[in-house]
């Protein structure tokens, strides 16, 4: 399997885990290192316990910063460096996100921001017919759609309430899969009540 495929899978898994379980130490480090991380944290709703904790950790709420054991942070930093997501400057001893690390954080932010916007009343339908030679990418497309809360209508037909990210369309181009994927935006749909039940 290509590195590109594996990294795409990692981005999707990282984001899904973040949405499902909230914070872990590695995610905290990555977002703390992102230059605009504080602005993003301020925008998170404190009503979600995991996001409240996140905001508290970086001191962007009215609560004091919680303490973290240094050894846990060090272990996670070493792993993030090994994974190529974080770099350490030898002279200054400062840590920073690599291009790959920034891409991972941007991916999670982008998906979160899409799902936070109010529904515009339109449905999105994605139909794909991926050749067998690209079958591993088929799973990545499904993961991406499920992450965006799309529901399966038929085997390779998914319906969702949120727009498909532009970055996802660019990735389809990079993977040479765009010609196998069709995305529709629909104002009206038959049996809308039945469709909406899938999202509850």
Automatic annotation (TrEMBL):
Pfam families: PaaX_M (PF20803)
InterPro entries noted in UniProt: PaaX-like_central, WH_DNA-bd_sf
Transcriptional repressor PaaX-like central Cas2-like domain residues: 117-193
Top-rank taxon: Bacteria
Protein name: Transcriptional repressor PaaX-like central Cas2-like domain-containing protein
Native source species: bacterium (Candidatus Gribaldobacteria) CG10_big_fil_rev_8_21_14_0_10_41_12
């Amino acid at each position: 399997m290509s590195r590109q495929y594996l990294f795409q899978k990692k981005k999707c898994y990282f984001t899904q885990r973040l949405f499902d379980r909230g914070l872990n130490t590695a995610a905290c480090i990555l977002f703390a290192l992102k230059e605009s991380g504080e602005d993003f944290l301020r925008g998170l709703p404190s009503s979600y316990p995991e996001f409240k904790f996140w905001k508290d950790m970086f001191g962007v709420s009215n609560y004091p910063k919680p303490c973290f054991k240094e050894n846990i942070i060090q272990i996670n930093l070493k792993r993030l460096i090994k994974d190529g997501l974080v770099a350490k400057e030898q002279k200054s001893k400062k840590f920073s996100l690599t291009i790959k690390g920034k891409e991972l954080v941007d991916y999670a932010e982008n998906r979160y921001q899409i799902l936070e916007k109010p529904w515009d009343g339109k449905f999105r339908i994605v139909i794909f017919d991926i050749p067998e030679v690209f079958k591993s990418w088929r799973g990545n497309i499904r993961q991406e759609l499920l992450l965006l809360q799309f529901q399966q209508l038929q085997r390779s037909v998914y319906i969702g309430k949120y727009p498909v990210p532009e970055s996802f369309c660019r990735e389809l181009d990079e993977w040479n899969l765009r010609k196998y994927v069709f995305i529709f935006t629909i104002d009206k749909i038959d049996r809308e009540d039945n469709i909406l039940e899938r999202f509850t």
